Amino acid sequence: MQITWLGHSGFRIQIENAVLLVDPWLDGNPMFPADRRADALAGVTHVFLTHAHGDHASDALAIARETGATLAAIHELAEYLKREGATDVIGFGKGGTLVAGGAKVTMVNASHSSSIDFASGNAIAGGSEAGFMIAGEGQVIYLSGDTDIMADMDWMADYHKPSIGILSCGGHYTMDMARAAYAARRYFNFRTVIPCHYKTFRLLAQDASELKAGLPPGTNMIEPVVMEPITF
């Protein structure tokens, strides 16, 4: 299994027989090198969206058209993408699980907001925000999406038992580093933590040292580098 950061909250996850992109914001992402687009999209089978904000979802339709990948998102966002011309799109909801090339992707709760703010005109409702539990190859990845700490993390950790946590932690719009570390200590038993939703803008945290310092002993934090795969 390989996890590759695309900058901000975007990830490429090669797992089982699937290549998943989660929140692949490439066009306009100041962290993503434009000349690596073909590498990021190579072999993609599915695009999963945690919510509708432009720094997560605005590139999804173009990527699906370019690659033929299946789009998957919460129902309201999926319906919007259909109206915009997506032909292979699956809408599902929290608690729902999709099988993608042998990997199982379950939508779980998050605490944020979700509107389609990249369409022309005023922002429109885009369903609600979510995270994902991605199971395959003997591992479960918890990809938090944009969120603050939630009491739901208690049952989510107990039920899904994720070994890898990809946590939003840049602050201002999501948990900051200290809050993400608290969530990891309080609710989870991660072997590995990967930070995201940081560095992109000046408003956000620029390094993950505070997160690393606050994690439980024995937890491996990997500060990702854009387009450098992490192999498990």
Describe the structure concisely:
The chain is of the alpha/beta class and 232 residues long. The chain is built from seven helices and 16 strands. The chain has helices at residues 37-41, 54-57, 60-67, 75-83, 152-160, 177-187, 209-214, and strands at 2-5, 11-15, 18-22, 46-48, 70-74, 89-92, 97-100, 103-109, 115-116, 124-125, 130-136, 139-143, 164-168, 192-196, 220-221, 230-231.
Number of helices: 7
Indicate the structural class: alpha/beta
Query: How would you name the CATH homologous superfamily?
Result: Ribonuclease Z/Hydroxyacylglutathione hydrolase-like
Strand content: 25-35%
Give the ordered list of helices and strands.
Answer: EEEHEHHEHEEEEEEEHEHEHEE
Strand order of the largest sheet: 6-5-4-3-2-1-16
Shape field: globular
**Quantity of strands, as a count:** 16
What value does the average pLDDT take? Answer: 96
Share of helix, binned: 10-25%
Largest sheet: 7 strands, mixed
Task: Describe what you observe in this structure.
By secondary structure, the protein is α/β, with parallel strands linked by helices. The protein has a single domain, classed as Metallo-beta-lactamase, Chain A (4-Layer Sandwich). It is 22% helix and 29% strand. The chain has a 7-stranded mixed β-sheet with strand order 6-5-4-3-2-1-16, covered by helices on one side. A 7-stranded mixed β-sheet has the order 7-8-11-12-13-14-15, with helices on one face. Strands 9-10 form a two-stranded antiparallel sheet.
